[in-house]
């Protein structure tokens, strides 16, 4: 394994860093204030920033090389450090059209969409003119086991009829969101992992009711939001099905591999920034006659954080490298490992930074509270920690028995 970044990746890292310095950090506070005071409205400067990113060649960088013409040509390993730089500001990745859930949805359409589906939905998503949501989780069933999902997708002539209730549909509140990828069951009597299908549902289809935003630790995460959505007798053309009936589970598995690398690298970027802020803060303030940075407990916290970030980064780069060489399936154990390790690492590092900041650490004057919320929610989203441990534990035991 060689984690030396390629020339291309190093050049782009430099460009993304410069872009963050020039365009993102100066607007960080203004953005936060705008979304707090104007729920469900898109920050007016965002369009300008997106155009600047396009002009700078920093657009859609996430889509791996294996996607051919759609991809700007980076491997997962080359993109990973760019995601870490973007993760230093919670909303920055959307400026580069690299934010979830659009990235996963674009990957699905690039990999599994028909030319007509791609023209209608992938092209505007890749251009950043619309946004999307992914509707899998349901309030009435334990959705960390996706086979529990109850939403029905029933064929009726040349249409499908969809009925069900979803929640935690990230992005569904965004006024720019025009398309939902919905997971449901086309055949509840089929074998367990082929009952499910994915279908494209326009956000404005008759019968779609975006009922309410869910708060995350008291915040709305506006303008994307996380919505509860009712689907009542929603009719879409039969050609909106992705690939074919019964393929929902297979598509879901493929969708989540690179997406986990992106989340983890952004979280690593957030943790790095938290540690930097902590180092500055403790070097500025004195208690009981000495700088806070001189206390051994603080130095231990800084040292522990440094080690944990570096461990997490190397593990995540190993996962990215393995996906590039062996595909998502070949990298599944490493993908589970990063999903178990990185969000908790971020919570721990950010928690230490908050403590070292005193009261300032929990208020809007630093990005720390937002970083902690991001880490904490990713311990649930894309599958809770326990589910990844359950699967990794099972695979590890199986492999140990096979080698005896
Ligand atoms: C901020 C945020 C954004 C989200 N965005 C989306 C989105 O865009 N689209 C979408 O479809 N969903 C989204 N989700 C939903 C998320 O994926 C689910 O919450 C998650 O999969 C867990 O499902 P659940 O909430 O039904 O919990 P449940 O399935 O009820 O699980 C609850 C708990 O049970 C325990 N548990 C479950 N299985 C096991 C096991 N095998 N071993 C031990 N313990 C276990 C775990 O502690 C788990 O947290 C989002 C969630 C959050 C918080």
Descriptive report:
- With 404 residues, this protein is of the alpha+beta class.
- The protein folds into 3 domains: 7-127, Butyryl-Coa Dehydrogenase, subunit A, domain 1; 131-242, Butyryl-CoA Dehydrogenase, subunit A, domain 2 (Beta Barrel), CATH 2.40.110.10; 249-402, Butyryl-CoA Dehydrogenase, subunit A, domain 3 (Up-down Bundle), CATH 1.20.140.10.
- Helices cover 50% and strands 15% of the residues.
- It contains 11 helices and 9 strands.
- Strands 2-3-7-6 form a 4-stranded antiparallel sheet, with no helix packed on it.
- The longest helix has 37 residues, at 248-284.
- The mean pLDDT is 96.
- Bound molecules: flavin-adenine dinucleotide.
Q: Distance between termini?
A: 27 Å
Q: Tell me the series of helices and strands, N- to C-terminal.
A: HHHHHHEEEEEEEHEEHHHH
The major β-sheet equals: 4 strands, antiparallel
**Do you know the CATH topology of the largest domain?**
Butyryl-CoA Dehydrogenase, subunit A, domain 3
Low-confidence stretches: none
CATH architecture of the largest domain: Up-down Bundle
Overall form: globular
- Ligand inventory: flavin-adenine dinucleotide
Overall helicity:
40-55%
Range of strand content = 5-15%
Total strand count, please?
Answer: 9
**Rg calculated over all Cα atoms:** 22 Å
Q: Tell me the domain tally.
A: 3
What count of helical segments does DSSP give?
11
Q: What is the CATH domain class of the largest domain?
A: Mainly Alpha
Structural class: alpha+beta
CATH homology-level superfamily of the largest domain: Butyryl-CoA Dehydrogenase, subunit A, domain 3
């Amino acid at each position: 394994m060689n984690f030396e970044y390629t020339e291309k990746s190093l050049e782009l890292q430099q460009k993304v860093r410069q872009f963050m310095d020039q365009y993102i950090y100066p607007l960080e506070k203004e953005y936060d204030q705008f979304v707090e005071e104007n729920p469900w409205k898109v920050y007016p400067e965002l369009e300008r920033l997106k155009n600047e990113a396009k002009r700078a060649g920093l657009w859609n960088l996430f889509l791996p090389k294996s996607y051919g013409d759609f991809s700007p040509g980076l491997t997962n390993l080359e993109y990973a450090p760019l995601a870490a730089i973007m993760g230093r500001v919670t909303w920055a990745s959307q400026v580069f059209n690299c934010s979830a859930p659009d990235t996963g949805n674009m990957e699905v359409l690039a990999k599994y969409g028909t030319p007509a589906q791609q023209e209608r939905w992938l092209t505007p998503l890749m251009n950043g003119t619309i946004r999307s949501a992914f509707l899998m989780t349901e309030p009435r069933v334990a959705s960390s086991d996706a086979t529990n999902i109850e939403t029905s997708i029933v064929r009726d002539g040349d249409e499908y009829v969809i009925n069900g209730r979803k929640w935690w549909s990230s992005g569904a509140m965004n006024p720019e969101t025009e398309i939902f990828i919905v997971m449901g069951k086309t055949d509840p009597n089929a074998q367990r992992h082929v009952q499910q299908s994915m279908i494209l549902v326009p956000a404005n289809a008759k019968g779609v009711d975006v009922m309410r935003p869910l708060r995350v630790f008291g915040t709305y995460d506006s303008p994307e939001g996380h919505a509860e959505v009712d689907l009542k007798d929603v009719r879409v053309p039969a050609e909106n099905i992705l690939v074919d009936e019964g393929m929902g589970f297979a598509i879901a598995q493929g969708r989540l591999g690179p997406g986990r690398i992106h989340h983890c690298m952004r979280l690593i970027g957030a943790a790095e920034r938290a540690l930097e802020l902590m180092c500055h803060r403790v070097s500025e303030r004195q208690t009981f006659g000495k700088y806070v940075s001189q206390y051994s407990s603080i130095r231990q916290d800084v040292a522990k954080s440094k080690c944990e970030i570096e461990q997490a980064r190397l593990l995540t780069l190993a996962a990215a490298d393995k996906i590039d060489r062996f595909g998502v399936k070949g990298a599944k154990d490493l993908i589970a490992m990063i999903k178990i390790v990185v969000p908790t690492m971020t919570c721990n590092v950010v928690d230490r930074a908050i403590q070292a900041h005193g009261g300032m650490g929990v208020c809007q004057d630093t990005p720390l509270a937002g970083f902690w919320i991001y880490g904490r929610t990713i311990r649930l989203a894309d599958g809770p920690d326990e589910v990844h441990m359950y699967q990794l534990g099972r695979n590890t035991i199986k492999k140990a028995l096979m080698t005896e």
